[in-house]
Design brief:
The chain is of the alpha/beta class and 220 residues long. It has five helices and eight strands, in the order E-E-E-H-E-H-E-H-E-E-H-E-H. The protein has helices spanning 56-66, 91-107, 120-128, 174-183, 204-215, and strands at residues 11-17, 20-27, 38-43, 71-75, 112-118, 136-140, 161-166, 189-193. An eight-stranded mixed beta sheet has the order 1-2-4-3-5-6-7-8, with helices on both faces. A hairpin with a 2-residue loop joins strand 1 (11-17) and strand 2 (20-27). Helix 1 (56-66) packs parallel to helix 5 (204-215) and helix 2 (91-107) crosses helix 3 (120-128). The longest helix has 17 residues, at 91-107. The mean pLDDT is 97.
Length: 220
């Protein structure tokens, strides 16, 4: 099937993805917020552990950006919701991200594209940020040292990059993330959240505030 047009208002839609349909949700800033020429593509946590585009961290990150005037596109990786295909440990999901990225760029030429990912989604967005020419990157709880994903082998983005990490993460060892960042020749901005687990329970407002505090400096 052919790709749908980019909607003029908040909408859910199906894209023609590399493994079949890809379920996506496009959301715009409120009418009283100045809209920027920026689209943020937001990626969700691990599919086989129940991750979806409706995860609370994902939706809060997207909301935080829309409050700054950024249009957001959340989508379900293959095998999740109405998205077809099977889980592919980040490889096929990279193709899914490429599809969404290509669709946004075709419909919004000249706009800046930001990648945002939570957990597994932060691995997929970081892995592809350079190749897909992301203009900025937000990585929430990146799963360093998990499931054999080698963050050290991935080209580093040379664009604004923010990492947000809970110091009490029970899924991703926090020190593995801090050590990885310390080893990088080009370091992202790092925000550490005390007494905060992987899913930012009771800390979602803090997450929103931290995203907005740093990201507003990226806007014109």
């Amino acid at each position: 099937m052919s790709q749908p047009a980019f909607p003029a208002e908040t909408a859910s839609l199906l894209l023609d993805g590399p493994a079949g349909a890809l379920e996506a949700a496009v959301e715009f800033p409120e009418a009283d917020v100045h809209a920027e020429d920026v689209v943020a593509i937001v990626c969700h946590p691990l599919s086989i552990d129940g991750g979806t585009m409706n995860n609370k961290v994902v939706t809060m990150a997207a909301k935080a950006l829309r409050e700054l005037g950024v249009t957001t596109v959340r989508f379900n990786f293959r095998s999740v919701g109405q998205s077809q295909g099977e889980f592919d440990s980040g490889n096929g999901e990279s193709d899914d991200l490429r599809c969404v990225n290509d669709w946004v760029r075709a419909n919004k030429p000249g706009w800046r594209i930001w990648f945002v990912g939570f957990s597994f989604g932060s691995y997929v967005t970081f892995k592809n940020a350079v190749a897909l020419n992301a203009d900025a990157l937000i990585s929430i709880a990146p799963p360093v040292a998990r499931r054999g994903w080698d963050f050290h082998a991935i080209p580093l983005p040379r664009v604004p990059w923010l990492v947000l990490m809970g110091e009490a993460d029970e899924i991703v060892p926090p020190q593995s993330v801090f050590d990885w960042i310390d080893s990088l020749p080009v370091k992202p901005q790092l925000v550490r959240f005390a007494d905060t687990g992987h899913f930012f329970h009771r800390k979602l407002i803090d997450l929103r505030n931290a995203i907005q505090q740093h990201v507003q400096l990226w806007l014109p």
